[in-house]
């Protein structure tokens, strides 16, 4: 999302005028609030908001749940108008922005008055990253955010450790292609996590599946955040943190652990406490990489564009690979790995002629803004929009969030994912098999079951 005009809920004459110009909130009827809860809120919960559930993801894909959610929000937009839709559910105030401008206001005015560290997020993420930047506020958030940006080198397409990262990705991709296991999601995910552990912690962590399995179990508690208080998981979290710190203490050369060790941190930052979120975020990145491979395996024209980009003298050197990178961005546009961008208002905020109370939860539903039907390419795989300026002329695309809360690891994630996709396609013809059906030139389903992805790879002559 591009940063457009700024808003202010309280101070500043310009902010007040902008708030007055904004659309007035519309209060949804009890019936419509229930419809939103079932069609928009329930599918992400069924699929798993922190760690994905196989059965839930399979069910939502079979129902193409996001399509029905987007249709409902389009209907409500027509009936209630463009203002934010105010719902009362389970005793809480929730708001769904239905216009680009309102969504942009919420994301641009992060973290004040729209904090990412709301009750829902703290409850879900506190099980495994209680000191992470996403659940921090005030000065702590500012310092932790700055530290994350320094280590991850936010804004740089190529991290200074890119040569080591590219070698790691290409080594693991080669093993995946020549291994005895079928090229299905389980094999892909196992390879992905070996890459992640090496990138984040170093080569010695390559086979420490116990560490990431412990993290997955802690994340699983996050799916039930309202039922399981963080103190109930304190003991398994302490064990995970001890094992994680053992890797970080080695600060293995060529890993993010080394970069973390060399980056100055203020006393309240807790450098080690930032790493669980990096591992968590890389999980979604692996899903995006597999989906990108599925799209390219079924879209010959775009696949050829990637191959044209790979016709370079030395692909083993770090490359930005803009077209392959655009393919990853497009996969996240089509299937957002984080469907809801959550914020919570820290105070009463003015919207047009109305106001919304402090403590209101704002849910920016990314599939609605990415695929509301207003763009001719909305339901098709068109990586070119990320290269010709189309995706940057408006503020509606938020594949990595936006504003001051944008993902600080976006460039690093795109480097690792695009390198993996390129390495798998470089010398092989990859084809998609199984129940997931995609076709070139046709509409892409709104929801996809990445657990069901199955490929074949044949060496190119």
Write the layout of secondary structure elements.
Blueprint: H1 13-21, E1 26-27, H2 30-47, H3 54-63, H4 65-80, E2 85-89, E3 92-96, H5 100-108, E4 114-115, H6 119-125, H7 138-152, H8 162-178, E5 183-184, H9 185-201, H10 209-222, H11 234-250, H12 256-262, H13 275-298, H14 300-310, H15 322-334, E6 340-345, E7 349-351, E8 354-356, E9 361-365, H16 366-370, H17 410-426, E10 428-433, E11 454-459
Parallel strand pairs: 1-2, 3-9
Antiparallel strand pairs: 2-3, 4-6, 5-11, 6-9, 7-8, 10-11
Task: Give structural attributes.
single chain; 461 residues; alpha+beta; six-stranded mixed β-sheet; three-stranded antiparallel β-sheet; 17 helices; 11 strands; 49% helix; disordered N terminus
Outline the biggest β-sheet.
6 strands, mixed
N-to-C span: 42 Å
* Portion in strands: 5-15%
Number of H/I helices: 17
Radius of gyration: 22 Å
Class by alpha and beta content: alpha+beta
Helix content: 40-55%
Describe the structure.
It is a single chain. This protein has helices spanning 13-21, 30-47, 54-63, 65-80, 100-108, 119-125, 138-152, 162-178, 185-201, 209-222, 234-250, 256-262, 275-298, 300-310, 322-334, 366-370, 410-426, and strands at residues 26-27, 85-89, 92-96, 114-115, 183-184, 340-345, 349-351, 354-356, 361-365, 428-433, 454-459. The strands form 3 sheets. A 6-stranded mixed beta sheet has the order 1-2-3-9-6-4, sandwiched between helices. The protein is built from 17 helices and 11 strands. By secondary structure, the chain is an alpha+beta fold.
């Amino acid at each position: 999302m591009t940063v457009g005009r700024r808003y202010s809920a309280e101070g500043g004459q310009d902010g007040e005028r902008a708030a007055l110009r904004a659309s007035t909130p519309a209060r949804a009827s009890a019936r419509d609030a229930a419809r939103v809860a079932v069609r928009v809120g329930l599918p992400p919960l069924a699929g798993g908001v922190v760690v994905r559930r196989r059965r839930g993801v399979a069910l939502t894909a079979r129902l193409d749940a996001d399509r029905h959610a987007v249709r409902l929000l389009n209907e409500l937009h027509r009936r209630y108008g463009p203002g934010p839709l105010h719902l009362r559910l389970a005793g809480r105030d929730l708001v769904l922005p239905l216009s680009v401008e309102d969504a942009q206001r919420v994301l641009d005015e992060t973290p004040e008055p729209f904090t990412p560290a709301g009750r829902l997020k703290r409850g879900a993420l506190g099980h495994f990253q209680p000191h992470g930047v996403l659940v921090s506020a005030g000065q702590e958030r500012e310092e932790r955010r700055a530290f994350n940006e320094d280590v991850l080198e936010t804004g740089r397409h190529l991290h200074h450790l890119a040569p080591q990262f590219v070698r790691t990705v290409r080594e693991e991709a080669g093993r995946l292609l020549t291994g005895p296991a079928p090229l299905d999601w389980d094999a892909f995910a196992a390879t992905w996590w070996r890459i992640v552990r090496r990138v984040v912690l170093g080569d010695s962590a390559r086979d420490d599946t116990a560490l990431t399995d412990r993290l997955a179990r802690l994340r699983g508690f996050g799916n039930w955040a309202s039922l399981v208080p963080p103190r109930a998981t304190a003991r398994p979290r302490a064990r995970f943190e001890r094992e994680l710190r053992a890797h970080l203490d080695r600060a293995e050369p060529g890993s993010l652990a080394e970069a973390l060790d060399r980056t100055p941190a203020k006393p309240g930052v807790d450098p080690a406490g930032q790493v669980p979120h990096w591992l968590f975020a890389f999980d979604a990145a692996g899903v995006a990489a597999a989906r990108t491979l599925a799209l390219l395996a079924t879209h010959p024209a775009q696949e050829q564009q990637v191959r044209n980009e790979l016709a370079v003298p030395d692909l083993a050197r770090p490359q930005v690979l803009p077209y392959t990178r655009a393919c990853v961005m497009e996969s996240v546009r089509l299937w957002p790995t984080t469907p809801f961008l959550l914020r919570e208002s820290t105070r009463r905020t003015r919207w047009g002629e109305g106001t919304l109370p402090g403590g209101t939860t704002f849910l920016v539903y990314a599939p609605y803004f990415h695929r509301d039907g207003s763009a001719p390419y909305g339901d098709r795989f068109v990586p070119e929009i990320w290269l010709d300026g189309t995706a940057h002329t408006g503020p509606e695309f938020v594949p990595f969030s936006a504003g001051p809360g944008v993902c600080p690891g976006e460039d690093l994630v795109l480097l690792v994912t695009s390198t993996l996709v390129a390495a798998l396609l470089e010398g092989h013809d990859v084809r998609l098999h199984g129940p997931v059906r995609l076709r070139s030139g046709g509409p892409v389903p709104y929801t996809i079951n990445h657990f069901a992805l199955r490929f074949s790879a044949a060496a190119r002559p």
